[in-house]
Amino acid sequence: MNLSYILNELGEERDQYFNAIAPPVIQTSNFKFNTVADFRGALADEYQGNLYSRGFNPTIDILRKKLAALDGAEDALVFSSGIAAITVPILALLQSGDEVVCVENPYSWTIRLFKNFLPKFGIKTTFIDGTDLKELEAAISDSTKLIYLESPNTFSFDVQDLAAVAKIANARGILTMIDNSYCSPLYQQPIAYGIDLVAQSATKYLAGHSDVVAGVVTGKKEVLEKIFNNEYLNIGAALAPQNAWLILRGLRTLAIRLDKISETADQVIEYLNQHPKIERVLHPFHADNKDLALARKQMKKCGGLFSIVLKNSSLEKIETFCNSLQHILMAVSWGGYESLVMPACAGLSKAEFDPNNKRHVLIRVYVGLEDADYIIADLDQALASIPVF
Ligand SMILES: *Cc1c(COP(=O)(O)O)cnc(C)c1O
């Protein structure tokens, strides 16, 4: 489907709402019925229509149609957060005694889901290095019901071979799910590689303005209907119509935002590559990535997220660098206008920090929509402030 058509027209029925160009926010909790027969029909099958906004709502429907089409999926469910879009489908599709094979170090709350939350319901997870297909196959047991991927990872940028993993899973009747927040559907299309469920934090690129928390999962209608009729309605992590509207507004500029961000990130990385105080840049398309060919094969571009490691990294150096930034903001999340940094050490106590741990020394950078020169100048003065030793 044509991208401009999806972003500007799909799901929008302007003649039904006064020919308004912008979609309406249908700010209602419930919908009326004219006959008991109609009401009974809606109660019996909520997936088919509007009954109550914990389920569906017309503003939500416009967004669902666009997000499904962007992923090349049959349907989409949207949620009040990205982590709900990951947690709710998993709770819906697994039961006690089932096992999950998951890549190492996915998003922090995804780790907690698999390590702390699912064991309460008797669901066990094996973590694997997703770049090693032999290890993946060895981790699969008769009870494995789900293989969970995050490619690229949003801190270390490891990638998994989506087509190969889907092939292994499909041959055994195992469901596959990916967190595609890094790429967005514009830069990676997991369903085309045979992945079953694609989750994203819509908080990031889709909404794109650091003002909404939201999530989406796409996949086959039959699977999403099962999720909707049970855990979706029961857990009640529905997206508010106003927030859906903000995402619809964000989507209009998704393509130009992402392309501009990618271009700027390339310029910033080029600057960092030659800087004497930078040890490493971690980025899927970086020459140092051992899986560069795979990343280039399955992803169109990368967007604005990458990590850096300072030379002779220490807590003092990392803190000096981050504290010295004048324009780039220190914060979690990414995907909005503003460039951000997030040092991994902020999530660790001083005693826990180990300068020899390759994850502890990472400083994640998100390049936003500011000019490359403006971002580079800020990085340059912050790097200059780091003591040399
Ligand atoms: C932010 C994020 C999430 C969680 O999304 P929320 O909208 O914050 O709930 C999940 N995965 C990745 C990769 C993320 O960056």
From TrEMBL:
Domain of life: Bacteria
GO cellular component: cytoplasm
InterPro entries assigned to the protein according to its UniProt record, in alphabetical order: Cys/Met-Metab_PyrdxlP-dep_enz (IPR000277), Cys_met_metab_PP (IPR054542), PyrdxlP-dep_Trfase (IPR015424), PyrdxlP-dep_Trfase_major (IPR015421), PyrdxlP-dep_Trfase_small (IPR015422)
GO biological process: transsulfuration
UniProt key word Lyase: yes
Modified residues annotated as N6-(pyridoxal phosphate)lysine in this record: K204
Swiss-Prot/TrEMBL keywords: Lyase, Pyridoxal phosphate
Record flagged with keyword Lyase: yes
Gene Ontology terms, MF aspect: carbon-sulfur lyase activity; pyridoxal phosphate binding
Cofactor(s) recorded in Swiss-Prot or TrEMBL: pyridoxal 5'-phosphate
Family: Belongs to the trans-sulfuration enzymes family.
PANTHER family: CYSTATHIONINE GAMMA-LYASE, TRANS-SULFURATION ENZYME FAMILY MEMBER
Name of the molecule in the record: Cystathionine beta-lyase
Organism for this UniProt entry: Pedobacter insulae
